[in-house]
Amino acid sequence: MARSLRVEGGDEGRAAADAALVARVRRGDAAALEELFRAYATPLRTFAARLVAEREVAHEIVQDVFLAIWAQRATWVVTGSVSTYLFQAIKHRALNVVRREHIHRRFETGAVSGVVAEWLGTKPPSADALAQSRELAEAVQRAVDRLPSRVRAVFRLARHEERSYAEIAAKLGISVGTVERDMAKAVDALRRELAAWRGNRR
Q: How far is CA 200 from each of CA 124, 135, 145, 194, rounded to the nearest angstrom?
């Protein structure tokens, strides 16, 4: 369990200690980053879990934020308190995760159910709406069948079994980030298939 960083002088002492750790991280001191992680990991994970409702995803979000800090350590700039910076970074990444999952699921639901009007930009004529829906479903299935095996497995778990990204990651033994990337690949393939399907109907 992460422990709190104990410093003298209350908030001012904490701010000074954090500023010193930021300076050390910028110089490439991995121990300083580890110290920041130990100090803030638990409250950051709790905060992230409230946003994404998945403990495993929350843990990965926190890890990703600290990895990103380390990757960009030479240019890392903190204006204001380190605490505020970290919570804002977690909020930004967590909301991006939620947004991506929502967009992916929204696209899949609309495409596969035959609700094509939003994606085609026109309303299907009532006389052949069902035929269009079947054709689109077949086009989507062809696109899914051509996906790489793992991407196809991720897509089907998300679409058919309605698994969360964290559940898919655990089932397939991959990271949530990999699930996100595979879903992005699947959605891109579906978009291309929809574009081709639309073009063939003109």
A: 15, 11, 20, 10
Do 119 and 169 belong together in one domain?
Answer: yes
Last residue of a domain, one of 63, 95, 127: 95
- pLDDT averaged over every residue in the chain: 76
The count of structural domains within the chain is 2
What number is the average pLDDT over the span 24-52?
90
**């793992």: which residue's tokens?**
150
Measure Cα distances from 169 to 73, 83, 202 in Å.
29, 30, 40
What would the pLDDT profile of 101-145 be if each residue is shown by its tens digit?
665 555 555 554 444 444 444 444 444 555 655 666 677 777 788
Report the sign of the C-alpha dihedral through residues 172, 176, 182, 186, in that order: positive
The model's pTM is 0.51
**194 CA to centre of own chain:** 24
The amino acid sitting at 171 is: K
CATH number of the domain where residue 90 is located: 1.10.1740.10
Report CA-CA distances (Å) from 133 to 117, 122, 128, 137.
10, 14, 9, 6
